[in-house]
Amino acid sequence: MISIEVEEAAWTDALPDVEVRAEAAARAAVVAARVEGELTILLTDDATQAELNQRFRAKSGSTNVLSFPAAPQPGAKVLGDLSLAYGVCAAEAEAQGKSLGDHLSHLVVHGVLHLAGRDHMSEAEAEAMEAEERTILQALGVADPYVAERAA
Fold first, then answer.
1. Residues within the annotated binding site for Zn(2+)?
2. From the annotation, which residues make up the binding site?
3. Contact by Cβ (8 Å): 146, 132
């Protein structure tokens, strides 16, 4: 089950289909990563995201996406939670010449892959994770997000 919580109205103002897009990206990533479990996606504002970033990562300021893997629970299938900050995501999309919808799809896929245990701490991990993201996003009709990011 995938739950979408829109806390920041700017998300739906900018993307009336934001819940559909976020759910489609999450579902595609869950299937591709071969994981199961409940997932909640919080679409929030920069201030809330900054609070979460400080509280759980001891980092100041907002960030585009945060992933919160669920602690293993006997008998429960919970993958975890994602939160995305509207202002940061919108600014990144504009700076990288992408639509906000495509950027949202990318960040949701990226976050779900983190929940599935993928990481990008080493160059090899980053290359593998980016390749997996590209494949998932291509199936969703989203162009390679790393081309735009590297150009920006």
1. 110, 114, 120
2. 110, 114, 120
3. no
Tens of pLDDT along 137-146?
999 999 999 8
Amino acid of residue 95: A
Q: How far apart are CA 122 and CA 65, in angstroms?
A: 19
Query: Which domains are assigned to the chain?
Result: 2-151 (3.40.390.30)
Average pLDDT over residues 121-145: 92
Q: How far apart, in whole angstroms, are the C-alpha atoms of residue 103 and residue 90?
A: 8
Q: Among 49-63, 79-93, 117-131, where is mean pLDDT lowest?
A: 117-131
Question: Which tokens in the block code for residue 86?
Answer: 């509207």
- CA 94 from centroid of its chain's CA atoms: 17
CA atoms within 13 A on the CB side of 25: 28
pLDDT tens digits for 17-38? 999 999 999 999 999 999 989 9
What is the distance of C-alpha 86 from the center of its chain? Answer: 12
Helices (H), 1-152: 9-14, 18-33, 46-57, 86-95, 100-115, 123-139, 145-151
How far is CA 129 from each of CA 12, 43, 126, 136, rounded to the nearest angstrom? 29, 23, 5, 11
Tokens of 123: 């160059």
